[in-house]
Amino acid sequence: MTDELITCAAALFRIKGKDVLTEKEFTLTASIDLKWVSNKSASILMNRMVDGGILVKKNGLLKPGMDFSTVPVPIAYTPSQELKNSLSAPAETPEKPRTVEKREDPADMFPELMDIAMEHGIEKRTFVPECNSVKKKLGVNMCTAALLVLRDAGVDIGGLTARVYTQTVENR
Question: pTM for the full model?
Fold first, then answer.
């Protein structure tokens, strides 16, 4: 489990593109931006990482407790269900599936957009970092960034824009 906590921390810091995060930024990123876990579970995750020496907490700021640059992080990393379950309080478990089922997330389209990219000769290892870069530079969600990357690569995105827009508006 410790190895996965290290991978999880490395992924989060890489996604944020920072060396230091506030506690609030950590929990909001893990829960709202990445939709890995609930906000409460994100706090538990952060505390486990601090207790394990993976992160160092000082004056409300979190810094890596080790060099994350050498940690291999899979593309589109998501914590395992085992890790997520270990963070959940028993009372929380019945609510989580309901919330996930009710809400359609624009990120749900991302695998479809990645498949389209691969059909047009764009490799995953190129597509995902480009999407992350556009997302960060323009402050848009991941699917919108993916559409821009596809468009810039010459892919016709006409049939996809309305779906991404509709899902984005519904999830505000």
Answer: 0.51
